[in-house]
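Q: What structure does this chain adopt?
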Amino acid sequence: MKQYANWLDKIRKGLTPVENHLIDGYVDGRVSRRELLRYGSLLGLSLPVLGRVSLVAGFGVAPSMARANVQPDATIRVACPAPQATIDPVLAGDYGPILMFQQVGEFLCVDGPDLVLRPSLATSWKPNQDGTVWTFTLRKGVKFHSGAEMKADDVVATIDRLADPKNSSNALSVFKGILQKGGTKKVDDYTVEFHLDGPNGNFPYLVSSDNYNAIVLSANYSGDFEKTWNGTGPFRIEKFTRNVGASFVRNEDYWGPKALPAKTEFTFYRDIQPQILALQAGQVDIINKLPALAGVALLNDPAFEIIRIRSTASQPVHMQCNIGPFKDARIRQAVALSIDREKLVNGLMKGQAVVGNDSPFAPIYPSTDPSVTQRKQNIQRAKELMKAAGVEKGFQATLTASQFLEIPAYAQLIQSWVKEIGVDLKLNIMDRGAFYGDVVPGQSPWIDSEMGIGDFGHRGVPNVLLKSLLTSTGAWNPAKFHNEEYDRLVENYVASLDLEAQRENAGKIQRLLLEETPVLFGYFYDHLTATKKGVVGIQATAMGQLFLEGAGIA
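A:
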C-alpha cells in the first residue's frame, strides 16, 4: 500500500484541484468507484490511471466493448426501424437515420453503458480552470472513406455546422446557450478548443456519441450524405435502398482494429412485430431496439439473448403551467400522486425499467441526490389537493400522445388513475411524425398540448432535458414552465466541474420540481436489444446505436 500511496502522490502533483477533489472524495468514501471512473473520464483522466486509483489493476474497456472470439468474416443481420427521413447527420433525430450514419461515422469520444467516456477520434480532453474552454487532442492517421485525413478543420466544420441556427440542426437543442458557431477553434491540425458561452462541467458528453448528430464529417460536407456516406468508421456503405434496407462492408483502411464481420445487413421495418417474427424465423440475428411490452415473448425465451442496458430514456408527461386547470401546482401534484409507479415498472414495462421521481435525474446518474424522497401513489392526498385547489368535483382535459412504443398504453393507465381524483381525461393519440411536427410552438401538437407525453432517448448527462425541456428559454418547454430559481439552479449545475457540487445542486432541482411538478417522469426504461443465441460481441447503446465491429457468431 505504501508503493500505491507514493504512486498516488506522484500522480496528484500533475492533477488540477477539481481532479484531486474527485480523488479525495473516492478515498474518503463520498464518491463510489463507479462515480470515480465515470466522472474522471469526463474530466479527461485516462482509464488506466483511474483504474490504478481505484486499486483495480489493468482496468480497460468494459467487458461489453471487448472483441469476441468468433467465426471470421461473418455477415451480421439486423432488424431495425425504417428511416423516416433523409439520412443526414445534421438534421436526423429518429432511430433509423441515427443507426445508419453511425455505421460509417465516428465521434470524438464514446459514452459506454457504464456512462464512462472512452476515446475515439479524440485521444484526450481537458477543461481550463473554470470549464469555459475544453481542449481536445485528435487521433492522428485517421482517414475518411474518401482517403483524406481527418484533421482539426473537419472537427471545427462539423461542430460549427451543428451549432449554426441557419442549418436547423437537430443538435441545436444540445448546443443552444452552450456553444455557438465560431466557438470551435483550431489550435493546430490535431488540437481543437471549444470556447463555450459559459462554464460547463459535462461538456465532453455533448460532443460524444451521446449527441448522436456529432459524427465527424469532412470540412467540405454539403448535405449529400446519402450519396457519399463519407465517414471514418470501420464499415463502408455497400448499398442503401429506401424503405428496404442497407448493407455495409469492412473498411480495410480503418485506423483501428479491422472489423470482425465482413459484412452487416440491415432490414427496415415499420413496426416491431415483423421484426420479432423475423428473429424467431432466423431471418435476422439482431433486433436493435426491443420494446418491453411488445417484445415480452422474447424476454424469457432461451433461444434468444437480451442485452439489457440501464438507461435514462423516458416518456415525460408535461402539464402546461401557464393556462387552464394545470396552472395550479396543487392540481399538477394531485395528478402526480395518482400515478402508481410500481405498476408502471412491473406491469407496463415488464420489470425493464426503474421508477422515476418527476425530474430528469435518473437513478443511474452519479450527480442524482439519492436522499430526495421518492414520490409514491397517494390518492387520498391527491383528493385533498384537488379540493384545496377548488376543483373537488373535477374537470375535463385532453392528453395528447404519439402512437409509439408503449406510450398509448401509458396514456390509458394515466387516464384510469386520474379518473379516481375526478379528472375526465380525453386521449388524443396521433401519428408520431404529426405529433412532433416541426417541434416549434404553434406547429407541434406536443409543444402546444395542455397535457402530453414525449419520448426522449438516453443521455449520459441530464443537461439537455434540464435546459431544453424546462428552463424559461428552453428550446422546447411544452409545460410552459417559467421559474427563475429553477433556471438559476440549472445554470449552477451545468457550470460545476465538481461532482459533489453537482449533486448538491441536483438535490435542490429535484426538490423544486417535486414541489412545482411541471413534468412527470414516471419511469426510466431499459434499452433492450434481442439477439439470436450465439451472436456475440455486440455493443448496443441506450441511444439506439449499434457498434458491430467486434460482433460475430461464436
